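Quality-control log, excerpt.
Job 1 of 2 completed; input and output follow.
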Amino acid sequence: MYKKIIDFLFQLLAVKQYLIFTGMFFVLNALVMVILDAQLRPPSCPDMISLELVFTKSGLNQIINQCGEDGIRSHLIMLWVDYLFIFSYMGFLGNLLGSLLRGIDYDRALTLFSIPIIAGVLDIIENTLFLFQLQNTGSLSSVLIFLASSATLVKFILIAITIVLILYYLFNQKKKGVPEA
């Protein structure tokens, strides 16, 4: 089932003609996130990445105390907006990487293509767990906080791997004289 889903997404996204659309969708979503965060989050409230990498109940309690009600509300809004951002970066990175992977061994291409997809799934899990915790600040769960932060850390590692793969395949195309995606 997993391979069928990845195969379907690869066929859908690994098309270089979509790069302008997915790239613009990603950039616009990133701009919305930056502007919204600047407008909503109180200055005393730590940023979203600090929240996502908190790992402990005491750390999340500290962030909750620093943010206050307005800051928690801003994080809740940003987490909901982040769901759209997940699909924008997953689409763009998948589109770009998939376009570069065309022509290599198909099973290997699917494996590499799945990396940004898995990062997006982890991001969805992370957001859902943090939404649950921030809406129920009176009953925080150390396990859920740790799981959410662990998902965040693995997500960032997978995104970094995806970027390295994109650079590697771009460099190899240039080296071979193949027009880039």
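Job 2 of 2 completed; input and output follow.
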Amino acid sequence: MSLRADITIKQDESVGEVLNLLRLKRGEKRAVRAFLRGADAGGSQLVGLAQKERLRGEGPFPVRDKKLGVQTRRLSRSLRSSKPKYSGGVVSLGIGTNVKYFGGHEFGLRKKVSVPAHKVKAHVKNFRGKQVAIPAHSRKYHNRQMDIPKREPVATTIRKHGVRVMGVEIEKALIKEITNR
């Protein structure tokens, strides 16, 4: 993954109690493995929620909706969660993608970009209420100011659902390990 939004969740009291019980019953390594399995399942759930709630529908959507309209679903299909890491009661994992434009929409972008020379196909454009035919032509190399607002589709999903989803999935994994199912 080239770009990602990170998640760090500390265990709450109920998960901490289950984890301590598991440590006593099964040992530290099995407890941590179960914790990570739950975090991994939670990361996958969050990816699904981001795809469903924030990366669907024909846009453009207002920036305040924190949604990104899609045409090809390339970004949505490439969204993945990284393998979780556990350190001192804290689980860290990331959700990201290898699609280059994700960073511009998640974190915002304001800079000049270079546009290489290219050909423009003939097309029809609406100009002052009239249809105007634009003939095929070539565009020279040029710079363009890009100003993409910060939409945060993934970070919004993490803020909205992260604690609940991760807590439920980690607790499920720990209970499953305790009950040996």
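Post-run check on job 2. The longest strand covers residues 3-10.
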